[in-house]
Amino acid sequence: MNAFADNPLQTREDIARAVSQLVEPLETHRSPGGARLKPSAGGAWFPDIAADLEGFARPLWGLAPLAAGASSATGEDEYDGWDRIREGLRNGTDPDHPEHWGPAGDNSQKHVETAAIGFSLALAPERIWDPLEPATQEQVATYLRQIDDADLHDCNWLFFRVLVHLGLENVGEAYDRDLSRETLDRLESFATADGWYADGPPAESARDYYIPWAMHTYGLLYATLAEDDDPERAARFRERAVEFAPQFRHWFREDGAALPYGRSLTYRFAQTAFWGALAFADCEALPWGQLKGLWLRNIQWWAEQPIFTDGGVLSVGYRYPTLKVSEPYNSPSSPYWALKAFLPLALEADHPFWQAEPEPLPALPEQTVQSEPELVVCRDRGADHHYALAAGQSTQYREKYTKFAYSSAFGFGVRGRRPGLEGAGHDSALALSEDGRDYRIRERIDETAVMDDVLYSRWSPWDDVRVETWLAAATPWHVRVHRLETERPLNSAEGGFALPKGEADSPARHENRTDDERAWCRTPGGSSGVRDLRGHRAGEARGQEPNTNVSHPRTVVPTLVGEHEPGVHWLVTAVTAASPDGDDRWDEPPRLESTEPICVVDADGSDLIRCDR
């Protein structure tokens, strides 16, 4: 059931109704005492009690702005369940109640969720705090203050303490002010260049969606709610956001879809939370019409995807329900962090954001180099294909950061359980194997660099195997050059973009072409191809284990396969893809558009690989 089925998602009233439409299906899953909520029986790596608190708290990210922006004349909003929320808050923080949430110790998931409660105290105390009796208010404050005695992960988690403090401050409750300042100082130490942050100490932390939907969004909340008390810090948070905004818009396609890249993609339209946070902070980092267009189109795009269960609950997955692409910390309620997108509802209806007409993206460059995340974002308008080349980041979440390319149309795949290439997750990757059964892709990355518009990485799938990779855009292609140095015999398989499969009983709608140097596939979902520019590998079309791609449940990957004896080998690959509405230019030779060629010379100097631009 699509919770937005009858909602055009155009006006402020539509968006307000959307919050209720998202939250109402959860009520049948609420516990008798109101403190716990769990839409299904699945679990995460933290205890069920924390997952139940997650289900209670995450809807507040949308409900608090909805309440804050309610008509001052009527005092009403689109949601009538605040009595149940207050009952749950009373019981969840009561040590003597069966639904008590229990203590929140070091690095507890419960601190993540109490941040939403703190945010609600800061934004809508008249709904969640003022009607509580004084004894319950003290009980709630005591529970929230546990965050001051706990160690937190050294990353965006530190903002959860700040959000709790903002709530306690707003309702006149005590908290550790010195710790608050120390925490904010630590968070600001994560700032890097060009308005970016790292999600933790910069030398060892990722640049991904946690920068816009966490670091920047929380910073803008603080800048708005604490501006009078901490104006200099508030100004810094705003300045970084203004610098970041023109870069982040490149992650969005013209129709509102965004690049699937990194972890926690099940939060879905949290992708647009940053644009909403700019509006909330009255920060016109881009023209209001452009901000509103970016924000609204992403929500509208998500509303058209099959992301809901039969009961209208947000599922775990990305563009469709699948646990195979989730993280161990994704509980059944995790997707409701998406409600952070609804911050603009806290604004009055006459705010310039709401008064602006949504504008399309401006004419953005075909290729944009982003040095902090080490990406080259590409817009192949002829092929209607929006994707990013990636130098790669070493994290425990492997394929979510280490593929060569990430596409808003074709997604990316993760490793499955089946042996061989069906479960290797080798789309947009070079996979290496000793036995043709177990494959390794770029995962442990030793070095990366951005060299003008070329991305470089050095990686070691085994201690005695080293691969150097260069990536360059060559619209409508991109080119990959690999120097493979191995002391053991290896099989290789290099994949292009994963293509959604057509139906097996409709061969006219599913075409594969393979030969000694290339592989090309076409389905109703588009086309995708790879070419070996040196002619050393054969082409194949390889199906992938179902539900391992974030965007499509069944995919096929055009693949080049080869065998390599110990020694040094050069692999040069051209990759292209087009959406169903794009111009398939498979027969055009790859060309690089720059003044200098990429030149790579074999170790003995006898062979020159030259990709002429």
Describe the protein in words.
The termini are far apart. This protein has helices spanning 12-23, 48-57, 60-68, 82-92, 109-123, 125-128, 134-144, 158-170, 177-188, 210-225, 231-248, 273-280, 288-303, 352-355, 399-402, and strands at residues 367-370, 375-380, 385-390, 405-407, 430-433, 439-440, 445-451, 454-462, 465-474, 477-486, 490-495, 499-500, 511-514, 518-523, 526-532, 538-543, 555-564, 567-578, 598-601, 608-611. A hairpin with a 5-residue loop joins strand 5 (430-433) and strand 6. The protein has two domains: 12-355, Glycosyltransferase (Alpha/alpha barrel), CATH 1.50.10.20; 367-611, Beta-galactosidase, Chain A, domain 5, CATH 2.70.98. The strands form four sheets. It has an eight-stranded antiparallel β-sheet with strand order 7-8-9-10-18-15-14-13, with no helix packed on it. Strands 5, 6, 11, 12, 16 and 17 form a six-stranded antiparallel β-sheet that branches. The protein has 613 residues and is of the alpha+beta class.
